[in-house]
Amino acid sequence: MDADLYSQAIEYEQLTQAVYQAIWKTKDIGNITVTRNGRFKGRSGVEHQIDVFWKYEKDEQIQTIIIECKNYSSNLTLEKVRNFFGVLKDLENTPEVGSVRGLLVTKVGYQSGTADFAKFYGIGLKLLRKPIEADWKERIKNLHFEIVAKSLVSTPEHPIELKLFLRASTKEQAARLQATEAEGKLKIPLGPNLKFLDLNGEECTDEIGWWLPQALNCLDKEEGVLYEEAIKMGDLYIRLDLGGPEPELVEVIGLVAKYYVETIAFSETIIHGQEIVEAILKDHFTDDVEFVKYRNDETLFHNPG
Prior knowledge:
CATH topology of the largest domain: Trna Endonuclease, Chain: A, domain 1
Largest sheet: 8 strands, mixed
Number of domains: 2
Helix content: 10-25%
Order of helices and strands: HEEEHEHEEEHHEEEHEEE
Protein name: Restriction endonuclease type IV Mrr domain-containing protein
GO molecular function: DNA binding; endonuclease activity
Pfam family, one: Mrr_cat
Strand order of the largest sheet: 1-2-3-4-5-11-12-13
Domain Restriction endonuclease type IV Mrr: 45-120
């Protein structure tokens, strides 16, 4: 094997190790070690080099799963599977290995007869490779985001006009409201810093400059159009001077807003699946697919079902 092929084979073994390490992190089995390039002596006395393996204890017995990695550009032959089967039989029930299961991992596929032989003897067959177009069938490949931020326009040419509807709590307060309005002394503080109050006189909303755009849902509005919209309210109050010694709490039951909107920010993001997914792990017998990706130097996998 030349240097390039050897390097690629090592990288393939390392990827396989990382993938199965990530998978076993999700399993509820203790004492798991996933290791690469191990050596075990079989019952024949022959020592076998193992690409990737993991060992764990179950019912106080050692269990070992042995993975043979074949970084081939063509289908794996029956001969290779038979050779691997011989290694498994030689290692089975040795003190160091215990109960053994085998798993073959390759990039392309398996020749005719290979799958039947492997299935009969309980050897798992997997494909581990970069995704191709067919792998995305009936799955979302690309995500296209368009993020738009809109807000109310507040300029001399297009001011926001608000009209509040008030409800007095008593007949006496209603009379004071009418009298104050008739005298032209009713001053409603409609600046951008206004906050509505609860029945105890405590602030209970954001400033109206923030509260109003959310209440009006600007995102579905077009620019250059004058909108008029009513908002039902209740259990919200403001303080008004009605001629008494102290300002009074008066309930706001609704408002009508006349306004324009403007787009203040727009961004477009396209996430391509092939740039996120490093590889796929596909079971040859069930066609189950797991997508392998990297995040912060950590290998993750996701089974889309």
